[in-house]
Amino acid sequence: MDKVVESAGAAVADIPDGATMSVGGFGLCGIPTVLIEAVLAAGTTDLEAVSNNCGVDDWGLGRLLMAKRLRRMVSSYVGENKEFARQYLSGELEVELTPQGTLAERMRAGGSGIPAFFTATGVGTQVAEGGLPWKYDAEGNVSVASPPKQTQVFASPEGEREFVLEHAIVADFGLVRAWKGDRHGNLIYRDSARNFNPLAAMCGRVTIAEVEELVEPGELNPNDVHTPGVYVQRVVALTPEQAADKRIEKRTVSS
Predict the structure, then answer these.
(1) CATH code of the region 8-115+168-244
(2) pLDDT, tens digit, for every residue of 174-227?
(3) Separation CA 93–CA 87 (nearest Å)
């Protein structure tokens, strides 16, 4: 089945207002910038984004944030983005902060058909006990707080230990970026650009992949494939210029 779509705009055209999107990337590494720009151009709004972070003020998901297209973020890191902090603290944006490993496993579980799982991360904190501020009002008061979660004691190698129940994440759409991909949707990521991309692809009901290099079926070594095509519904081939347009989050130089 040929899953290639002629343009990023066509690939995201049916994402409706209010949809939940899982978005790959970590910082500015491996983020599906072309698909994000296409969502911005489409005018889609009231979106919930599930992603490790929200880009920076002028790149990645930060572009949707600046345009007030995001109503809610599920993420584990909110630094490097002044507009994110401003919207959150002023009550314009709801934010569900989640420990990074827990976020990754919630996404993986969603793609694996596992509805929930127990983890030790967050036990004894507001992550389990509730009360984390998800949303503020205009006066700076907490208007929405995280609910308490179910906990249970299990035997472990260290003896009996308390664990907290975390629910899987399944998104309406998944947006990812791959180094190579074929027409069947099989994807390979390069080095650290893999990060959250396989998980974002897994948990999206409809996953759209932008690929820097499109190859024909059979050209990818099956042993090298990170995301099998069963998780991908649409593929967008990037132009050389789009593939090369990558930002550096923090430039460092040596003397």
Answers:
(1) 3.40.1080.10
(2) 999 999 999 999 999 999 999 999 999 999 999 999 999 999 999 999 999 999
(3) 5
